[in-house]
Amino acid sequence: MGDYLDMEHGRFTLSVVLPDGAIEEFSFPSKFTIDQVKSDILRRSAKFENLPEDAKKQFLLGMNEEELFNVEFTRCVTHRPIYESLLKDGADGEGVVVNCPSGATAEEFLSLALQRLRSLVTELEAAGEDIAKEKARLQAEEKSENRPDRAENGGATTSSSSSSPSPSSSPLSSSSSSNGVDPGVHQEKMSAGSGRIRVKILRQNFEGEESPSTQRRKPDSLAGAVAGDNGARRNSIWAKASPLTSSPTSVRSLSPRGFGPRESLADRFSDLSSSGSQVLLPRVDKRVQGNGPTLQDLKKGGPIAIQFYLPGGAKTVDLECLTTATLASLKDMLWEKAKSGDECLAEKARYSVKVWHTHMYLTGDTTLLYQFPIIQFCWQKQLLARLCLVDKLESKQDKLMSLQIGSLIGRPLCWHTSDEDQTSHFKHKISKLLAMANRDWECAAQAKLSIAPVPPDFPTDILVKVHLPGEQRMATTLHCPGDQTFLGVMHQLAKKSQATREGQLDPADYVFKITGRNRYVVQLDRKLHQIDYVRECLKRRVKINFSLVLRSSVRLEDVDGDLTMRSSISVPLIDEEDERLEKKLKMQGTCSLLELKRPFEFKLVRIENVKLGHDASDESPSSTSSTSYLYLEAGLYHGGELLSPVVYSQSVPTSENPTWIEWLRFETLMCDLPKATRLCVTLFVRDGRSNTRPIGWVNCQLFDYRDRMLTGPLSLCMWPNGPANPIGTCVENLEARSPVILGLEFSRYPQPVVFPDLKPLFPDTVPQPSRDEELILHLLIRKDPLYRLSPSEKRLLWKYRTFLRSLHSKSLVKLLSAVRWADVKMVKQVYGLLGLWGPLPPLDALELSDNELAAFLLQLVQVLKYEPYHYSDLAAFLIERGLQNRVTIGHYLFWHLEAEMSVPEIAERYGLMLEAYLRGCGDQRADLLKQMEVIKKLKSVAERTKEVPLARRRAVLHEELAKVTLPKSFSLPLDPTVVANGILVEKCRSMDSAKAPLWIVFTNADPLGQPINVIFKCGDDLRQDLLTLQMLGIMDELWKTETMDLHLTPYGCIATGDFMGMIEVVPEAETTAAIQKAAGGVTAAFRQTPLANWLRSNNPSDKDYTEAVTNFIKSVAGYCVATYVLGIGDRHNDNIMVRKDGHLVHIDFGHFLGNYKKFLMYRREKAPFVLTPEFVFVMGGKESAQFERFVEYCCWAYNALRRYANIFITLFTMMLSTGIPELTSEEDIDYLRNAFSLDMDDEEAAEAFKALIYESLSTKTTQINFAIHILAHRK
């Protein structure tokens, strides 16, 4: 690898010579190890794609676990010319302007820069008098405006090119204190009237005593590298001086982004106002003046406090030693202290020293403590250094676990994050939860219980087949009553079994297992009709199969069950002791936000790397700068609500690195900002014809996870296009190789500004509404979640807030919608009301059983995107419940998170969630690794199969599957209780579709189980199918709880990655298109008899046919209501299947919420839902009693769903962040509001739906579409 170019804020920019001789720039976190750098280069560079595997392995040889900020890189640029791409004409404010030939070497450039800096000092001395006058003028202006934040600044004040006044700032920690300036810093002073300004010149960069080719640069402060703290960034702004003139050529820093990869030089210097051109002046460093510890003091030796966590993490030992001590002497002190405290430790060689809550190890017994980055960081920050002693065997296991987790997540665990402090905070909070997790959990679950009442038509006599234990695999079939307990089945089995005599089967020794699945009936007092599996088998006319297994072979303590029967980890989401300590420390040495009664404002400094490229051609900024302009739009939002009118910057000519130096002020006062306020910024380009388009956007929280407000300079990597989404991510675009970088600066204060803890206020009076007002309140509470309250309605709700508390607990949702969150007094009163409010219903409060929680898990994972910080109560809640029940919750939590890891906006947060879960899930991690291995191999097979012509796909598929080596046994992502151990290659096929999905048949690991049929899709986005099937499942459960089973078939579906996943195969089913093709082709689509004849052929007896027709009527009614409410489109006859037992099933949900397919701008599907004369013929015709029963089912089901309309609207609203094309805004969900007819009563709604039934039946375009589809897909 090439030269060490730059390091800033914990990142290195490396120039790497690739195999073809080309040189590429790469930016890495300073905490990356050398092996992670190599692996990341292989992943990110296209140059390595065609490199032979042997060459790749050679590149990865010599893996080094040393972290970047602990490695000294030798400069290798002396004899390499600086490339033209790193040069720029004209002064752009990025540094001291230096004239330099384009072919100059780095050594020549550094020599010229040194001369320029020395001449700068002389010129500034001449300008000192003018600067002093300007300073006095601005100080007088400050006093007249009475701006307290300026009065604190003892140095130079600022002036802006904007019309807005710009606050000066007094840095809490200035440039060198934040960046650990070494003793090698040379400082020259100059007089500026009554003040003094220091110009710092880094000897290691610019002095000529040592050749740059052999010189080694020391790493900057660890504050930026480890903490990522805003306060640790360089606190500096711009400066101006009049006597200087700009040189025609400006050589930028060796990094293409400017001086540093995260910020420009604008973030390093003070702002002195004058009328000349711009130069850059470093700020005065308080720590250099002796007000804080420096690295020089660290190397001289001083005491540092260290807290050691002993093995197990339960006990600690506090030490104090000199920074010049060796690691070996530190261990000696620890052993002596531990011995005196009666702590038993084995020999020292058995242990390793590790940084607490990280994967960083301290190695080398002769290494001095101050040489370790963690000691440097804690010394500079004056923090307690926390280390832990770990067993080396555990250390190896920990490293192996980290490799496994990194493999599952898809990136190394210490990849760069936007905020290292926040990441550490998340891990610290979650660590207590993980410490108490059961790490020896197996994938086994109790049989799911049905929550619906027993159907009145439930059979009284059930055939149950029981497989007996033993090598003979004997089985017996029992006739059991529907309300028979499993204990009764056990006794009945003992009497009938010929293999055993009565009394030999002791119920205490056995449990029942669902054959083919790892689901058990452990509690033998359960009745047959309580088991969901039994009900589904009876409904689908499938044999009921149980296996009798020894109770000792099932780890009962590991079997998941319902919320009420499982063993809980019992870890509170909020540690009360930690919370009290955090609150105590929060306000120490800080300033309350409520004391700042001034408008919020920030300085727009500059933007870097603006590229105005297009799809067909790449238009350079220089070619458009004369006709186009750039400007920014900024807004303050809270929960998607705009707090203040948006503000706009001045327009500047388009260039690659435009500069503003402009303050943007909002109307909102700082003391009125809610804690979750975010700044949303969009960069626009406007051409000569006043056409504008967004080219970049970024959001940032104004308060960090510690409730501290952003201060000082900040650089943000913007996302492309836009505009900014007020409820979108607040994570930077760190994945892009060359993003647009926005340079901002916030006002600074003598102390950190903290959002205080608001004390609840309680109302003195309790007004009562009039009769008319009470009626209005009742109506408002019943409004759907998307209803927008008017200002008068908000005032009414707030006026009678105490009355609402007694009215209905659900009224809390509407009351919170009426709160003005920028009104501190109102927020305090809301806090008071929350403590008095009645308990919410279980569904609203998420006090759900595991099966109920699993039904809403998809939305809860998506809602994590809206949380302002990585750690939240919701994140902890999901991890805790997932670890408690790893089959029902944890397994699907993993895959929901994993499927979104390709989305860069949320990958950082979801990666942390995945790491936390995988560290606590124990043995399940190995099973997930197997599943991931199977998925990757199937993906490879699917991609190869898709490349060949349709006629050869089956043969190629069988050939590729025969080469695949799978684990001996593995669970399927669709259902972790279904375990496979191979593939039946001869039964697999590639389906006739554009994406060529694979029909895969797995062998069941249970020798008594049936083969497992799945469809593996690669290239299709399954998220919309997953959401639709989830809604169908919820509808099915709701109808069952209302004592009506409409026989929906919400088959399994899981997304396992970006455009990849598995779908459960509906067994014994055929598409209506295939049925019509077999009955005559195109003409059969217009006949009434094909479907009835097909059902009769598969149900020859009158009893079976009558039962099939009943199943058909109920399922058609259910799907008519469901597809209408959800607005499901593309309902051609290949997307509708019928099972042999009569159940109709809809599949492939590519369009919903009323997004129907069109042909030549005309809507192809004109019927509200699919109901053809062919369907009605099966029911007996329009005049039959069965058709009337069908209409009754539909109207009843429609009204039953309307009572839960708010649930469906809320669930869809929670999915707005998924990026599903047909679900991007609240307007898309308006379809649901209209479909539920919320303004009608039940009788009116039933009549309306009855009209839809007859409208669908009389619409001929449905049959025409069926015929066209058959014609288009003839073979």
From TrEMBL:
A GO term for molecular function: 1-phosphatidylinositol-3-kinase activity
EC number of this enzyme: 2.7.1.137
Biased composition annotated in UniProt, kind: Low complexity: 159-178
Ranges for region Disordered: 136-259
Keywords annotated in UniProt: ATP-binding, Kinase, Nucleotide-binding, Transferase
Ranges for domain C2 PI3K-type: 596-750
Known catalytic reactions: a 1,2-diacyl-sn-glycero-3-phospho-(1D-myo-inositol) + ATP = a 1,2-diacyl-sn-glycero-3-phospho-(1D-myo-inositol-3-phosphate) + ADP + H(+)
UniProt cross-references to PANTHER family, sorted A to Z: LD28067P, PHOSPHATIDYLINOSITOL KINASE
Name of protein: phosphatidylinositol 3-kinase
Species annotation: Acanthamoeba castellanii (strain ATCC 30010 / Neff)
